[in-house]
């Protein structure tokens, strides 16, 4: 009879105790997902994030989302009163496709909890919620222009110049990238000049309140997004791994800036896809010279200060679109292909959910090999899954721990067929 894998039961939030012990004093905990549309990934990350905040004093959550939208949520959850109405109303700020990724009832429940938690904390200890991504070029420029106009200072001219440079492209960054691909004139100098102007001003100012300091930080961050988004969209047009690296390097730069904002004792929780948080050096991404935040965090912060948790499932359902910009729909996730981590774990665990730790499974010969690891994006076609949805991975090296849910379910977007849908219980397993 085969020796069973060393695993830990995963049935309720109390079963996260061994994971909290393993995380120890890590400064950043990276929480992955194998899709952007799975209920269980969001609820288990929420359960763990709550415990990290309550029991280990984590300072903020940073997610694979746009800075302007996430900062609106951040400002709202730090208010003394819920002037934004309901969490569902607040999350309507995520109006760029794929809206369901952060505009869902699972995130609404987290948002309400964060606001309630923050009400019991002094201003300097209130937990933040920030976006790490680089897509929001136009929205970020609008935010900087609005901030500069409010301040009425020297940044206004630089903001208007940068805004005006992109204006002919109808707020479409990809149209901008196509237009400048074969000419020497672009908006590189304008966005970099804007960022330098904001940084010079920040170096000479003092702020009366934490809110003022954070607003200034947000303006500078929006300028940084514009700088890196300009680079990202041009690199994307050229193809290859360069645009991916621009994006994940921006994520790491943003995380570092957030640490600087919150101080030397601050701790971060990161929510992003497994392809971002699982160390790229232990996947086929390495052959393409691609990096990710999981690798960069280990290299820059020290492996002992970083704890990464991957997520995966064998079968179920997911929210995704059949093509970019398409209406979302609930799709069936077929059983994992035969030569994959998900199939191996399903067979070894007999269909049970489990928590695995890399230091316990690394010596198991059954796991000391590279296997396909399922990765579902916002665009998904289940019938073609075996041809492009598996990333060859050394699982025990890619993550520090792995959460395996044998059967998962689609998450719950805020709007279903035009009507708001209220969920009776997001945590049937206890939370």
Helix content percent band: 40-55%
What oligomeric state do the depicted chains represent?
A: single chain
Shape descriptor reads: globular
- Our estimate of the beta-strand percent is 5-15%
What's the number of helices? 16
N-to-C order of helices and strands: EHEHEHHHEHHHHHHEHHEEHEHEEHEEE
CATH C-level class of the largest domain: Alpha Beta
Contiguous low-pLDDT stretches (5 residues minimum) are: 416-424
- Main pleated sheet: 9 strands, mixed
Identify the CATH homologous superfamily of the largest domain.
Answer: EreA-like (biosynthetic domain)
Radius of gyration: 22 Å
Tally of DSSP β-strands: 13
CATH fold type of the largest domain: EreA/ChaN-like  fold
Distance between the termini: 36 Å
CATH architect. name of the largest domain? 3-Layer(aba) Sandwich
The total number of structural domains is 2
Mean pLDDT: 91
Which structural class matches the secondary elements? alpha/beta
3D architecture notes:
The protein is α/β, with parallel strands linked by helices and 431 residues long. The protein has two domains: 199 residues, EreA/ChaN-like  fold (3-Layer(aba) Sandwich), CATH 3.40.1660.10; 126 residues. The protein is 43% helix and 14% strand. The chain has 16 helices and 13 strands. The strands form three sheets. Strands 1, 2, 3, 4, 5, 6, 7, 8 and 11 form a nine-stranded mixed β-sheet that branches. The protein has a two-stranded antiparallel sheet with strand order 9-10. A two-stranded antiparallel sheet has the order 12-13. About 2% of the residues have low confidence. This is Erythromycin esterase family protein. InterPro entries: Emycin_Estase, Hydrolase/PRTase-associated, UCP036794_erythomycin. It holds the Pfam family Erythro_esteras.
């Amino acid at each position: 009879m085969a020796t069973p894998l060393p695993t830990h039961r995963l049935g309720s939030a109390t079963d996260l105790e061994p994971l909290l012990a393993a995380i120890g004093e890590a400064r950043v905990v990276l929480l992955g997902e194998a899709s952007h549309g799975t209920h269980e990934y969001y609820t288990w990350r929420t359960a763990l994030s709550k415990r990290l905040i309550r029991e280990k004093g984590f300072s903020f959550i940073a997610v694979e989302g746009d800075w302007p939208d996430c900062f609106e949520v951040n400002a709202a959850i730090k208010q003394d009163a819920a002037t934004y109405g309901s969490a569902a109303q607040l999350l309507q700020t995520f109006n760029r496709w794929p809206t369901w990724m952060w505009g869902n009832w699972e995130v609404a429940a987290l948002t309400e909890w964060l606001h309630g938690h923050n009400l019991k904390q002094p201003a300097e200890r209130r937990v933040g919620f920030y976006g790490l991504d680089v897509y929001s070029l136009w929205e970020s420029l609008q935010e900087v222009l609005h901030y500069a106009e409010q301040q009425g200072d020297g940044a206004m001219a630089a903001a208007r110049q940068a805004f005006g440079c992109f204006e002919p492209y109808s707020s479409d960054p990809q149209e901008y990238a196509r237009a400048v691909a074969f000419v020497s004139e672009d908006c590189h100098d304008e966005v970099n000049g804007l960022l330098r102007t904001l940084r010079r001003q920040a170096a000479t100012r003092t702020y009366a309140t934490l809110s003022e300091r954070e607003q200034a930080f947000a303006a500078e961050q929006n300028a940084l997004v514009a700088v890196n988004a300009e680079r990202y969209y041009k690199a994307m047009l050229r193809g290859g791994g360069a645009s991916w690296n621009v994006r994940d390097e921006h994520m790491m730069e943003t995380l570092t800036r957030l640490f600087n904002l919150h101080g030397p004792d601050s701790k971060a929780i990161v929510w992003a896809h497994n392809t971002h948080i699982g160390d790229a050096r232990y996947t086929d991404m390495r052959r393409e010279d691609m990096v990710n935040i999981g690798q960069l965090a280990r290299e820059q912060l020290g492996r002992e200060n970083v704890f990464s948790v991957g997520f995966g499932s064998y079968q179920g359902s997911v929210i995704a679109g059949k093509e970019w910009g398409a209406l979302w729909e609930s799709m069936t996730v077929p059983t994992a292909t035969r030569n994959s981590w998900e199939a191996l774990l399903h067979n070894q665990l007999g269909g049970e959910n489990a928590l695995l730790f890399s230091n316990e499974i690394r010596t198991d010969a059954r796991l000391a090999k590279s296997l396909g690891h399922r990765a579902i994006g916002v665009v998904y076609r289940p019938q073609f899954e075996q041809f492009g949805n598996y990333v060859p991975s050394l699982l025990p090296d890619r993550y520090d721990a792995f959460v395996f849910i044998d059967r998962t379910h689609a998450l719950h977007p805020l709007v279903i067929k035009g009507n708001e849908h209220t969920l009776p219980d997001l945590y049937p397993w206890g939370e």
